[in-house]
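Lab notebook, bench 4. Still working through the backlog of constructs that have no structural model yet. Next entry is a single chain of 474 residues. Request: give me the structure tokens for it.
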Amino acid sequence: MKHYKTPFLLALALAACGGNARKQTLPSVEEMQAEKFIVNTRHEAAVVMDTVIPNPGVKYKERRTINPSSPPVTLHVARALEEKPLSLSAHYSSVKLIKLAHPFAEQERGFLDSTNFTVTFEDGGSIHAMGMESSAYLTDNHIVVGDPVFGYHAYDREGNFEYTIASMEEPPPYGDDISVRIKPSERLLSSISTIGDNCFILSIQSGRRQYGIELHDLATRKTYLSRPIGRDQPKFINADSYIAYRYDAHAPYPSPFMYSFEAKGDTLCRFINHNPVPPRGKGEGARADRGAFYHHDDLLTIRQSYNDTVYRVTSPRELTAAYVLDLGDRAPDIYTALYGDKTGKLLPGPWIETGPFVLVAHTENYDIPVNREKHAVKFFYSHLDKATGKLYRLPGDDFPENLLLPNDVTDGLPFMFANVQSRGKNLYVKYTRSRLEALANHASFASLPAEQQAKTRAALADLKTGELLLMILE
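Model written out:
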């Protein structure tokens, strides 16, 4: 029997942000002479707020632009494409392997690896997440590693522990199954994200059932803002502003699908949804496309659910089109995506952008556990070479977490499609013992070069329970 991991942020979601749209016409080109928002990452004193600031009004009118010198690239993923494996050695020349030991290993704590995690709130409610792993992120000058259970920690780029950024006051015992109880007066860490050398820590304020944020500067080792933010899960534009994604497919036009806020709470801009509004069906509808949200070169990049355009958030008021995802005539309309039969329909999957290329997955039919069990969903993969603008079909049709990608960079380890991360020009991959074991037991492992097989087995033998291994391609 196959087990499917539950993303922890999804499990923690206090309110579902549904959203669907199919195709959006790009607006006319505007001269990109907008005022730019100055990022101030050094605050003289920490600001602590205990209430959600009301939104008195919208400060700026939104702008959607196309950069004439870098127009959006259309990815026709549904077309017949030339099949070509991804050659990492064409883009990277060296490998750096960094082993990360948990800072509190002597207290019998470690990084999470396929852990089952249960949270019980004493004032009511519980959360259960399966297959949790600790996260790892490269910043400008550090590595940030950790999880909601045993905290988030800063390391230097050589893997030496520096300090703990945030943690639970009384963490539970370490193991494969972890349970915690949260008092009404306590917070539960949820996630961490980074821009530059700034960290943005999201937590649940238990008694209030709302999220809180802490903005932390790795250079000064100080938290410069802490406040509740209601039920939004923020995605940061820079150290001083963030967006809140609030798309409701049934909201009448013109309704905002997204807002931008100053970090202290002032409303900066609202972005109007231009997608067709479908008739309402039975139930809440499927969430077959959750969109895409990530940072590339410290620019927040988004694709609205069931929308074909990928935008860079170039300021709190401006979206600049970067890519268009073309699923062809088999893309579902919004009603079908929400309520209808998606057999034969093409739906977006994971989207991973690195410095030199973009990895794209899409499916035929809805990717949910029951369809996987029945072999009723098919996976397709492609990669865009940014330098040439050419799109290729990537060999393989396994699940994203099981699609093995060879690594032809000297001393590199193989990895799974779903495990790719990127920071600037660097591609990096985090390994736990379970991930290395999955590689060594993969059906395609024997087809890899003997030296790469040996290095993978050696890495597995050397990595202790509770440790992480980070591979950085440079």
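Notes after review: Residues 450-462 form the longest helix (13 residues). The mean pLDDT is 88. Flag for follow-up if needed.
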